[in-house]
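In this section we turn from sequence analysis to structure. A common task in structural bioinformatics is to predict how a protein folds when a small molecule is present, because the ligand can shape the pocket around it. The inputs are simple: the amino acid sequence and a SMILES string for the ligand, here magnesium ion. Study the lines below before reading on.
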Amino acid sequence: MLKHDELGLSNDNVLEMYRLMVLARRIDERMWLLNRAGKIPFVVSCQGQEAQQVAAAFALDRSKDYTAPYYRDVGVVLALGMTAKELMLQAFAKAEDPNSAGRQMPGHFGSQKLRILSGSSPVTTQVPHAVGIGLACKMNQDSSIAYVTLGEGSTNQGDFHEGANFAAVHKLPVIIMVENNQYAISVPLNRQVACEKISDRAIGYGMPGVTVDGNNPLVVYQAVKEAADRARSGNGPSLIETISYRLTPHSSDDNERTYRSSEEVEQAKEKDGLIVFKQYLIENNVLTEDLDAEIEKQVKEEIDQATDYAETAPYPSPESLYHGVYYE
Amino acid sequence: MLKHDELGLSNDNVLEMYRLMVLARRIDERMWLLNRAGKIPFVVSCQGQEAQQVAAAFALDRSKDYTAPYYRDVGVVLALGMTAKELMLQAFAKAEDPNSAGRQMPGHFGSQKLRILSGSSPVTTQVPHAVGIGLACKMNQDSSIAYVTLGEGSTNQGDFHEGANFAAVHKLPVIIMVENNQYAISVPLNRQVACEKISDRAIGYGMPGVTVDGNNPLVVYQAVKEAADRARSGNGPSLIETISYRLTPHSSDDNERTYRSSEEVEQAKEKDGLIVFKQYLIENNVLTEDLDAEIEKQVKEEIDQATDYAETAPYPSPESLYHGVYYE
Amino acid sequence: MPVLSYIQAINAAMREEMERDEKVFILGEDVGKRGGVFLATEGLYEQFGADRVIDTPLAESAIAGVGIGAAMYGMKPIAEMQFADFILPAVNQIVSEAAKLRYRSNNDWSCPITIRAPYGGGVHGALYHSQSIEALFANQPGLKIVIPSSPRDAKGLLKAAIRDPDPVLYFEHKKAYRLLKEEVPENDEVIPIGQANQVRDGDDLTVITYGLPVHYALEAANQLADSDQIETTILDLRTVYPLDQAAIIKAAQKTGKVLLITEDNKEGSIMSEVAAIISEHCLFDLDAPIKRLAGPDVPAMPFAPTLEKEFLINQDQIKAAIKELAAF
Amino acid sequence: MPVLSYIQAINAAMREEMERDEKVFILGEDVGKRGGVFLATEGLYEQFGADRVIDTPLAESAIAGVGIGAAMYGMKPIAEMQFADFILPAVNQIVSEAAKLRYRSNNDWSCPITIRAPYGGGVHGALYHSQSIEALFANQPGLKIVIPSSPRDAKGLLKAAIRDPDPVLYFEHKKAYRLLKEEVPENDEVIPIGQANQVRDGDDLTVITYGLPVHYALEAANQLADSDQIETTILDLRTVYPLDQAAIIKAAQKTGKVLLITEDNKEGSIMSEVAAIISEHCLFDLDAPIKRLAGPDVPAMPFAPTLEKEFLINQDQIKAAIKELAAF
Ligand SMILES: Cc1ncc(C[n+]2csc(CCOP(=O)(O)OP(=O)(O)O)c2C)c(N)n1
Ligand SMILES: Cc1ncc(C[n+]2csc(CCOP(=O)(O)OP(=O)(O)O)c2C)c(N)n1
Ligand SMILES: [Mg+2]
Ligand SMILES: [Mg+2]
């Protein structure tokens, strides 16, 4: 099995990655509790995808690259510098939410400062945006690159095709990562696509395509790193598919029992990237159960504080409804 | 080289194919003359693509299959039963035009009777339509299939991707044929796509894809025949790419000298499918120069009559503008 | 008569039409096992099977386009857009294709498709799950746009839409789904498209509206009849495109004072056309300026409850407007 | 001052803005070597190179979406849609993304893109090369829609659009391209977006219009001033969304008689909103019903000259309407 030091990742690096994965998971779990308690109206989860998300973000140059994450990418935005507090402010739709000041649902990330493109709800529109960033980087001889994610179901939208093709024709510094979690709401992979792998689509654009185990953050890191190097050295875009499983219902509004069995979900939980990575770290003497407990404790405190802060923070004022339609 | 009898085509069959190719070419040439004489406002040409068009149509069951041809497919619609007179009525925008009664430009085919789906100008919208026909055929246990064409540039539209994917997931009886003539107006293939072959896109949908020489009608016939058999026996859609060259400017409004050299065009003319097929037929003793002259003569007469008729036929009445918006 | 909610009425209409006519089928995202994310298609997959209640890939242009193709074959597709906000990738198929098919083929082809989509706000749906999208389509001859305001209308109008030989957009208010309940006939009540409905009679002023605001206007009018002896005529447009001009003119003339209400943004809404019709035909019948009560001209309804509330028209505003107009 | 045609003015505006600001670039179909199918970008590829005048793949959603991404980076893209009719595949990117980006990110991100598209009929363009498409977008806060009526305005308004910090749709009338010529300042004249322009002064009645009909209205008004001593005020809207309410109200009040002219279909056009504004604000100033002169409510302008002519508003109709209103 691939080792982190072979990838140039230090023990500190992988511990930090692990901490962020745990943080993402626990934030998500907390949001479900808050939702079920009637405190926040909506959650859309990262659970089962944190490992690949954090790993991918670590393979970027987080000081200058641009990202267009999709709604499950809590792991990505945390790795880029968004905080638990900021995510909770978003979940509670409070004025201080840096993503949208409470205008958008949770999972609609955006930050000019962190170079996270503002995202919307219609799926896949972010793909051409990332390609546009890639174009602008190339035109400006800016060595930044653009990283964009989407679900496997969303690769069936026209915008995936049009964006990928544009990036390939103009050899733009873009990485398209498809987080294949087996479902698009209730529709399983085999009713979304008939190809064997989503990465089979790459050849039709003339770009490299790989499929990797999304539950193994090290192979994800490696694939994204290679794609980033390729992009940065002027060799154009890449398509990466990460295979994992959506461990929760689609969102807090979903009832997954109508379309999949709890056995299937339980089985998938055994392969959960978070557990896989924890085991790896323990086996490689990077993590101990004690240290893990300490991480969990710190994470819990951070989330507690974030929740308390966000819960009592003010909502946007009614008058603010009218602002920001045009440049003022 | 592949022989027509190996494909089950009789001498009469291939002579009829040849006649239709000549007819298509001569109609197109006449339209340019009429356009340059100021008699018809617009032409969009089939020149250089007739061979593949007629061959593909012959590989269908013309008594029951549905087609969604694109604007260059004069060869397809002639093979399906549209007449020179009907095409001239369309070119002159006359009331009797069966495609649209003079409402649409030339090249916008459509006939319920001939099962030719009505086409519009925005490219590629016909792909999902053909898929819908395939779906309906499947639902109704109708052994008809749907055949749709488009240009290589048009494969970059979202509708190509969405339509192809839908057909593959639901294993529908559909043939998508891409007539790759190297240009989308002024934009050459390498600025449209970065893949090696358009048919490389097939694997991303999980359908078979082939690229064949569009100037050799026999290989086109073979590919479409195989795809039709596959579709009719419930094995789903296929993607076929035919390689040829657009021998005229994009349309009568285009000035091709801004983007390609006349040498390039002259070279392509040497590979013209019409010439290639004529040679094949002569070498195989199906056609003689005498018979060819006879065919040309008949075709000319047919076109002369068609033109005369269409030119003097009445325009649609102004009052007809208001009809057919909704069911009346 | 059984009491049905608005969404149950929609479900019943589809079930009955599918029982009545084998050509009727459903396609959309999550409409199968899941029964739709709002459960509009609940039970239909079980009753009619996967071939008539089709879970499509996640691609709206294909949902519309494949539906259009099937409709050209002679089927009667009901295409579901998961949210009205997500109909936008399908605009080209709807406007260029469905709306123009009959016209461009001079009545040779037709497109009897129904496209259903949940619209409207007040459910914490944020920017992209709250929009009123009807005005975008309300300038496209060939289309019809229906918006029911009650369970009974929802059923009768959906039946009419499904049976209509032309494309119908059918927008259902997602807040009405479970809020509105009433007795709905079990028999075959089909409510004609194109006719507005006077739902209340009164001599002091006229309210013209559609969708959920009909319900609010009725409440307000009834209260003001009691408390202030103001008698209001309420006209429910039912079909918002093309408009029932005669009914609008009659309702405006009747009282000479008109209040127009829509949940949509004000500028360029359905109510603009209603005002234009009145100002062309009833100028000398008016005793007061036409008044429009509408959402503010901001892009869409935000997530935060303070902002959602500020966006939405409320009972106080309706009552104040009625009183003001009555006193004019 | 040099005399420029409408299209030369557009070309000059782009050239000057590209010289002035390195962030300005062009992307679209055939805009490079070909100089655009109407030659709007003629010479710009030669002057600025393939990196700033980018021939894109044939995919409008990508043209808009990639442009939006580049605009998020800080570039100033000018995206060309080859015909306004073909903007429809890009509606989702324009309405869901460009229009809402600033608002949804609470002013954090912005989208300074200009989308140019030739619209309008009278050039034998048939159904899909003649449409007026502005009303479809004229209900989307966050967007601005500009339609110039003269070469000078075309230049000054395009410069304003390119410099605008928000997305601007800029529709240019293709029949005006070579029909209209006038002296156009060489200097940096920037005409502000959002302001209507009174182009003629007169006391008898007011014509409000935009685009090419401004030219026709001026001709008619001048003739009727001579022949019938009717003095007409003409207000050119210039920006059709959001409308210049104050100017509309003032112009209506000035004469008390209003004729609204658009080449678009009547129902749901820009003129509906203009009529609504007047009927809300100027009821008691009106001496005659508001009159709208518009295209008929059929899907689009057909190809046959008889039908195109029947669709288009002509000078006789304008004069008759002016006389009728003056005599009222
Ligand atoms: C254009 C559009 N259509 C429909 C939806 C509703 N929707 C939200 S998420 C989703 C499924 C997405 O599946 P996938 O791409 O696999 O991502 P996942 O949620 O599984 O991570 C759907 C249908 C949407 N947001 N946008
Ligand atoms: C949606 C859309 N965008 C643009 C156009 C304008 N247009 C007409 S044909 C064409 C090029 C098509 O190229 P290709 O698909 O290769 O077909 P070809 O004409 O070469 O046969 C373009 C850009 C259009 N008709 N539809
Ligand atoms: Mg998924
Ligand atoms: Mg081509």
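Residues 11-36 of chain A form the longest helix (26 residues). As an exercise, try to locate the residues that line the magnesium ion site and compare them with your own expectations.
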